[in-house]
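Q: How would the structure tokens look for this protein?
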Amino acid sequence: MGALPASPACLSLLLHLTLGGPPEFSHVTDQTPRAALKLDIVVIGAGQAGLSSAYHLKALGLVPQRDFLVLDQAPQPGGAWQYRWPSLTLSTVNRVHDLPGMGFAEFAGGDDSVQASVAVPHYFAAYEEHFELGVVRPTHVSVVCDRGERLRVESDRGLFSARGIINATGTWEKPYIPDYPGAASFGGGQLHTRDYKTAEEFAGKHVLVVGGGISAVQLLGEISKVTRTTWVTRTPPRWREGSFREEDGRAAVALVEERVRAGLPPRAVVSVTGLPVTPAIEAMRERGVLERRPMFSEITPTGVRWEDGSRLDVDVILWCTGFRSALDHLAPLQLREESGGIVMTGRLATQVAKDPRVHLVGYGPSASTIGANRAGSAAARELTQYLGLGRRS
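A: Here is the predicted structure in token form.
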């Protein structure tokens, strides 16, 4: 069985074949060659950058589920937003940027107390429906392989053959916890930002919050209201006084872009912009919560130890140490250079220099919502031009 031309009927057939399907497909076994749905472009991920890419592909004349297909691992619309902790509301989250063609405000209303994990998925769902993007979910993409003129996308919902891909898998699936001596010996609890639910679960425990980003500060503020906390960071935090201007955001994105164009690991935009001094931050200062200590050198069975020999006993270590790009499924494409990094090119550094058929959005300078929309537009336009896909009816 070869590649099937894309159509709603073929898509339905392919999913039936993969998932077992009705009785007439019961003869299909693991040894039966499976058909691959043939498309021009596959978009992997339906967060902010993925939906932006899909919107612009459609605007360029490509038809969803015929010319391109969006695959998303999440069980419902919303990207990583659907997993955020309940206390993250629209009043505490960084700005949620509008997706192209539909504003966020009309869905959020004027109530800033609404949970971000509710409001943003509602917005994304309405967006997908309005523009009829036909996202297939939940779909776990296990691997992408080079097949000459085409790329083979293998997933638990079927096989797909594409001329190009836009990868928008973000970072949520790749939480990063640095390796410290003695970590396995610690007798308390260890968790990452993505595991956090409520501050109340730490009541009566001494919590060590590790990390100097916005999430670390937000969770430190919440937890410190119910129990004892200690804050440690690798470098002294950089505080930003005053309002954050649009040109400040562009400058920060440009610095991160320079790194990925050189094949260097991307840095978080906040590492460039600094942490905003908000009323909540001022309140934390008054409570003495922001008395930061430098990073420890070792984890002990009861806590941590610094290079000078000083110790601190804690019950919980909360690692607010960020995420890494979720790109494991692209490993067979060998996109990395000998230096270990991926050299990015293109107008907004979304195109992989080693394989122009592959665009990474929600990566590096577009990992924040500041650059995700523009990256989706650039990737869609550049990839269609590279593949010679003109406007279609």
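Residues 225 and 334 are 47 Å apart (CA to CA).

Confidence is low (pLDDT under 50) at residues 16-33.

Upvote if useful.
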